[in-house]
Design goal:
This protein is of the alpha/beta class and about 180 residues long. It has one domain: Protein tyrosine phosphatase superfamily (Protein-Tyrosine Phosphatase, Chain A, Alpha-Beta Complex). About 45% of the residues lie in helices and about 10% in strands. The chain has 7 helices and 5 strands, in the order H-E-E-H-E-H-E-H-E-H-H-H. Strands 1-2-5-3-4 form a 5-stranded mixed beta sheet, with helices on both faces.
Length: about 180
């Protein structure tokens, strides 16, 4: 066998090995790591807030003893049935669709507050795509239901993940 043929065979083997090792069929070892969830925080004991978990991360939450998931994303934002999947894991699922700033409303603030009161000390995840809507709804709830000042409510919302919705929530709180 010539040196050129050995080099070509070796090069082909290395390229094939590289393609196989980078293939999408290779399991992603980080897919169940909840620390990879966008803006995931723990704003209260037994409560996590943040962005959208994937299916493997929901399994991790179930293994951690999470009993409730509150999703603020409208079903149109998802290309799978999150509620059905989460309930198949033995987790109670709640949907409060917050599609726009108009959905940061007294009704939705009350719905979230009621759910969090009912679940009590059970481990719970509240999520949207990034955590921003979670924090916005919690800020609005703090200002309208809990009697906090606008600044206290904004600070509370930020501690729950509010970011870019702050100006709109501030305006809503000031005009109440």
């Amino acid at each position: 066998m010539s040196i050129l043929k050995i080099i070509k065979t070796t090069a082909f083997s290395l390229v094939t090995l590289a393609v196989i090792s980078c293939s999408s069929d290779t399991p992603d070892t980080d897919t169940d790591d909840i620390s990879k969830i966008r803006n995931l925080i723990q704003p209260a004991q037994n409560i996590w807030a943040g962005g959208q978990p994937n299916k493997n991360q929901f399994i991790t939450f179930a293994q951690m003893g999470v009993k409730h998931v509150v999703n603020l994303r409208p079903t149109a934002e998802l290309d799978w049935n999150e509620g059905e999947y989460v309930e198949s894991l033995g987790i109670k699922y709640y949907l409060i669709p917050v599609d726009s700033v108009d959905d940061i409303s007294p009704e939705n603030a009350k719905r979230l507050a009621d759910i969090l009161q009912r679940v009590g000390a059970d481990k719970t995840l509240v999520h949207c795509a990034s955590g921003n809507r979670v924090g916005a709804l919690k800020a609005f709830s703090a200002g309208t239901l809990d009697g906090k000042t606008t600044e206290e409510a904004i600070a509370h919302g930020k501690s729950w993940g509010m970011t870019s919705l702050e100006p709109e929530v501030r305006q809503k709180l000031l005009s109440r």
